[in-house]
Design goal:
Number of helices: 4
CATH architecture: Beta Barrel
CATH topology: Thrombin, subunit H
Helix content: 10-25%
Strand content: 35-45%
Radius of gyration: 23 Å
Number of strands: 16
Shape: globular
Largest sheet: 6 strands, antiparallel
Order of helices and strands: HEEEHHEEEEEEEEEEEEHE
């Protein structure tokens, strides 16, 4: 049912890999997806994928304060050396402060510029640089938000189940990712459009924040990827997964005693096409809109 839609989506969907190095010198990688909108290199993805930018700025300030405190203690010459050492040893630190961060936008050497956020809608636009339009064979058509039938079969598209590793090279202050990053495969997951969720107004009052709900979960690695109908038209961008208890209880044994656990259904939540279309228009980004 979605074979042609998935084939089309591979033309404009790519992975984004986030590499982080921490204060304790450990590293990890996360993966999401993004949609290339037009031949100018504009993309749309989920804003929470870029949250590490804010996190590293906050962590950098805390690290500066941490080392400044150490320096002040070391200058307390009237205090015995052992006591100064003990004060430094007791200083609180965070082994998971982010010290180095890198985003890999589907290709080596590509950066994201001209970033435009709509955080309330988990929506972000940006432009890839450098960008070669000749390397892209098709661009997405976004769903016209005026007529959306509940029960329409949709398909989420992204890059779950990936095992990407990165080593940090001190010599050139950069990450070196494992070869698997160049062979990441898309994974489709179908579900029905169930309803539209309203989340009030944006902070500036300009936008009605809406999300599209589907009857299957979004998988880790599909965030920022397209939600497609059978024609390959983009109905939304995957944002998160919500869990809802549905009134059934399962009994299980834990530590020698019986416990009760609520059973939940996991539903995928995507950024609504009405919000995407309006944000693209307001930012002067050229895009294609469906006739239905």
């Amino acid at each position: 049912m979605f074979a042609q839609a998935c084939k089309r989506a591979t033309c404009f969907t790519r992975p984004v890999v986030i590499s982080r190095r921490y204060f304790d010198r450990s590293t990890d990688c996360g993966c999401g997806a993004f949609v290339v909108i037009n031949d100018e290199g504009w993309i749309v993805t989920a804003a929470h994928l870029l949250s590490a930018y804010g996190r590293i700025q906050q962590d950098a300030e805390e690290i500066v304060r941490y080392y400044h405190t150490i320096q002040m203690i070391e200058q307390e010459e009237e205090v015995p050396r052992e006591e100064r050492y003990e004060k430094i040893r007791r200083l609180p630190d965070n082994p998971k402060w982010i010290t180095n961060l890198s985003y890999w936008w589907g290709k080596d050497g590509v950066q994201l510029t001209d970033i435009r956020y709509l955080p309330e809608g988990d929506l972000v636009l940006g432009r890839l640089f450098p960008f070669d339009p000749n390397a892209w064979h098709a661009y997405p058509v976004f769903k016209s938000p005026g007529d959306m039938d509940v029960g329409t079969a949709l398909c989420k598209f992204g890059y779950p189940f990936q095992r990407i590793h990165a080593a940090f090279r001190e010599a050139n202050n950069s990450f070196e990712m494992s070869p698997e990053v160049h062979t990441l495969a898309c994974f489709p997951l179908e579900g029905l459009y169930t309803r539209t969720l309203s989340a009030g107004k944006s902070g500036d009052g300009r936008y009605d924040i809406k999300f599209l709900e589907t009857s299957s979960p979004g998988l880790k690695g599909q965030s920022g990827g397209p939600i497609l109908d059978a024609n390959g038209t983009v109905w939304g961008v995957q944002s998160r997964t919500d869990s809802h208890a549905y009134g059934c209880i399962a009994r299980a044994e834990k530590d020698g005693r019986e416990i009760e656990e609520d059973q939940c259904v996991n539903l995928g939540i995507g950024i609504h096409p009405e919000l995407i279309v309006r944000f693209l228009q307001d930012n002067g980004v050229r895009f294609y809109l469906s006739a239905y």
